[in-house]
Amino acid sequence: MDLIRQNNEYKLWVKELKGLIQRSQIKASISVNRELLQLYWNIGKSIFEKSSTEKWGTSVVEQLSKDLKALFPTQHGFSRSNLFSMKKWFGFYNSSNLKIEKVQQLVGQIPWGHNVLIITKAKHVEEALFYASKTLENNWSRTVLAHQIDLDFFGRKGKAITNFQETLPDFQSELAIETLKDPYKFDFLTLGEKVVEKDIEEQLVKHITSFLLELGSGFSFVGRQVSIEVDNRDYYIDLLFYHIKLKCYIVVELKSVEFKAEYTGKMNLYLSAVDDLIKTENENSTIGLLLCKSKSKIIAEYALRGTTQPIGVAEYEILKSIPENLKTKLPTIEEIENELSETKSIVFPENTKQPKFDIKK
After folding, report:
1. Which CATH class is domain 156-359?
2. How far apart are CA 25 and CA 255, in angstroms?
3. Is 209 exposed, middle or buried (CB count within 10 Å of its CB: 0-12, 13-18, 19+)?
4. Residue ranges of the chain with pLDDT lower than 50?
5. Domains of the chain: which residue ranges?
6. What is the end-to-end Cα distance of the chain in Å, rounded?
7. Dihedral of CA 95/96/98/104: which sign?
8. 289 burial class (0-12, 13-18, 19+ CB within 10 angstroms)?
9. Are 348 and 226 in contact (CB under 8 A)?
10. Are strands 311-318 and 356-359 parallel, antiparallel or unpaired?
């Protein structure tokens, strides 16, 4: 390492980085996070390029860390591991064919810890930029971001089987397709395999915050078991949502069994009723989402073919395995059943009557 420190090229390099850091410190008062990320990007770029042209080896980063700490004793972020992260950060995006300035502009808007997490977990640049964009769009914390990556949000987006291209106008169909995913992962539920729709429904409403997070941005909960009356007959929608970006209602029906073709018939009825009874003239056509325990891709596609109402079909997964160290902390099946029996339906605010929509043909 002493040989490295005596190298004139290395000394000039440290001097350049010193000036870079000092200039960044002056601007930091204007925009702390952005300037810090700009600094980290430039340091990472410099380390990456020097590693390619010089023959100093990886030990140079450890020496650089010591020198930068000595030069800036009150400034954090110059540890050996963080300098390696800066190098990896630049190298990760530099390996793509994308315009590096546009990449830098996007990733420079989210916190450093988020950026390190993304490049550590993402498999390729497209996935990394997706999570960076979603973090910025939804203001995700690092914990939420890690959760979404672990659940493979990127890999599941737009994967539900739908007929949206045939039933929705172009301006709405693309966003609607991207909005739905497959499968939906309800890992916050601890129900067993033999449960009915009501059990899942009650638990989803109880954990509505986690449920909305899994559904994605733009969803707003309207009600559970929403009653509609068609020709003097009562029907009940499992879960009703409103999507702010799509400007439409979304009917969600839960099935604890495999998808069956006849489910689309009942969903058609619900969508027509919501369009007639609830939707206003300024809102788009209601969309249906059938969440089933499993599905045959071919049967689902056949069932939706020729259907005039926009419907999507996707699977859901509940927690299948519980780590041994957590089992003692979770409630027993009897406790869950008792809790479910005492849980009241959550539809509308307390002291208000649940509306009943009536249509007679």
Report:
1. alpha beta
2. 57
3. exposed
4. 29-30, 321-333, 336-337, 339-355, 359-361
5. 2-151, 156-359
6. 87
7. negative
8. buried
9. no
10. unpaired
